[in-house]
Amino acid sequence: MSHLRQNIITRDWVIIASDRGARPYDLPPKPRPEQAINTYEPSCPFCPGNEAMAADELARTPGQGPWRLRVIQNKYPALVPEGDRVRRVDGIYRTMTGVGRHEVIVEHPRHDLMTATLPLADLESLIMTYRGRYLEAHKDPRIESVVIFKNHGERAGTSLLHPHSQLAATPVVPNQIRIRVEEAIRYFDDTGECVFCRTLREELKDRERIVTETDHFVGFVPYAALSPYHFWIFPRRHMSSFDAINDTEVRDLARNLHEVLAKMYQGLNNPDYNYSIRSMPTRSGPTDYFHWYLTIVPRITRTAGFELGSGMFINSTSPEESAAFLRGVSLPEQDSSGA
Amino acid sequence: MSHLRQNIITRDWVIIASDRGARPYDLPPKPRPEQAINTYEPSCPFCPGNEAMAADELARTPGQGPWRLRVIQNKYPALVPEGDRVRRVDGIYRTMTGVGRHEVIVEHPRHDLMTATLPLADLESLIMTYRGRYLEAHKDPRIESVVIFKNHGERAGTSLLHPHSQLAATPVVPNQIRIRVEEAIRYFDDTGECVFCRTLREELKDRERIVTETDHFVGFVPYAALSPYHFWIFPRRHMSSFDAINDTEVRDLARNLHEVLAKMYQGLNNPDYNYSIRSMPTRSGPTDYFHWYLTIVPRITRTAGFELGSGMFINSTSPEESAAFLRGVSLPEQDSSGA
């Protein structure tokens, strides 16, 4: 018999129906694309030498080649940095101009690498860049929320192979984030504690769902994981906003993320996935109740009409099984030395 | 420049970025499967004669063949009707036994039909069955919410071709539904009116997003549609719960749904889609503030890391364009006479 679990942070219920399950060995066989991909692709706007095919450059980190990574405008931006933030209310109709930011971070000159196979030093450099771009966006008074995210593979919403991440900064607080902040405040009111800190403490006591532990971060499968291998990485130190991360923590987050992405790559056969960094709305200062984190969702199952109609998810793999499976994936030696 | 819109009912913001857009003519060409599908498939558990391959039958509607439609248990149920509803709270961990219902409604004996190509009389019969199953689930005191939904095509979460719908009844109120009820109460407190009734009134005045109008239902693209051709069908009469629908309204809803599904089928090249019926939690009686409706989401674009990290959507087609496009799809004569 299945059971339901409620996520204390989001209040979302999920149905854990592990009898129905797609187990790792049921995963659709997927050709490992790296064997077929060139290190350079003449038509790729993210490859070195093709910079003119991409939109304006915003920043670059120097490297051994032409550059180590590059930040550019999204060529098809959902939000643009120019213009005023104008809110209009006309009866029940509410609109806002599309000011904000929509940036692309090209993670490496090589076309055939993936975030999961980046050398550790490049992943550190990527997270440093995330912080830098977050800080830039944070300064803009028109911005209320910043989301850093990654789409890997077609099921995750991208067809561009060249490894890249994105940053989107919105002139409103997304409703979902507002709801989570309200829940966090309510938990703090009831207990005097950050619900994320409490969750981390309990998970470290239980240990059943813990997968990756480094000095400053803990990676685990959430108790009420929405889908197989749904994953959270929490900073151990209480911080509301991602840009409060210090240099040591950046390097440590890179180690943690490097390990979990490598485990998913090996164990789940290079799955399509999204990750994103969830952080406090930018117009408020540090708070005692909200705690940023990184969430990873391998796109192994699909959401369907039940999720559409209820917002609830059915997870066919128990979180404990997901965690045990990922813990059991052994990584080759020298994994961090290069691609 | 894009703009943002807020949905007054859900409070969700969406980015309308119609410059980026996939227009209908960009849709991936998809072989019309009906040409390749047999009317009967020996391995299909939903085809007549193969009933023993499916789980237990719960109801059947007689027809010219062996049956007109059949309701069966889901063979891989997320929730089961046997057992007690037991809630356990252990610190931050909250669980509930997986009692409830998970039923499959086989919509027609013919394997090669689709909901979009069902004869109108069969669609009426299907919606009558929805109401009957909803009422059955509603009687069960362990049930708090009932969702009726449909997955069409692989992107929408099904690989079974034989036309079928599902009903899931949960022993909790999904958080998303609770949040919407709270928003509806707040709107009612502020204005003394149902926010759904108000929306319908404004949409009928505007007319820009209206697509299908029948005696008792109105089909339109929501002002803050989450994705291209996202569609709502509202009953004109205020009703909180789907099972308050009367016979005349069932037949009228069938006409409305028949028309919009046919338009999507023709105009969008048989898209994968989900629909679901959103209704009031079952433990409360009728209310002045909540209004059931049917929502359809063609799965043309994919959600990605931005949606994961913010809960906000980017819609590449403006709702007015979506509506105009669907209005412009002309349907063949005799469309309602049969497949």
Give an overview of the whole structure:
- The structure is a homodimer of 339-residue chains.
- With 339 residues, chain A is of the alpha+beta class.
- Chain A has 2 domains: 51-172, HIT-like (HIT family, subunit A), CATH 3.30.428.10; 173-329, HIT family, subunit A, CATH 3.30.428.10.
- Chain A has helices spanning 120-139, 175-191, 195-206, 247-267, 305-310, 319-328, and strands at residues 3-6, 13-16, 57-61, 69-73, 87-90, 93-97, 101-106, 145-152, 164-170, 210-213, 217-220, 231-235, 273-278, 293-298, 313-315.
- In chain A, the strands form 3 sheets. The first copy, chain A, has a 10-stranded antiparallel beta sheet, with helices on both faces. In chain A, strands 1-2-15 form a 3-stranded mixed beta sheet.
- In chain A, a hairpin with a 2-residue loop joins strand 5 (87-90) and strand 6.
- The longest helix of chain A is centred in the last third of the chain and has 21 residues, at 247-267.
- The termini of chain A are far apart.
- The interface between A and B is large, with 74 and 75 residues.
- Strand 6 of chain A pairs antiparallel with strand 1 (3-6) of chain B, so a sheet runs across the interface.
Can you describe this structure in just a few lines?
The first copy, chain A, is α+β, with helices and mostly antiparallel strands.
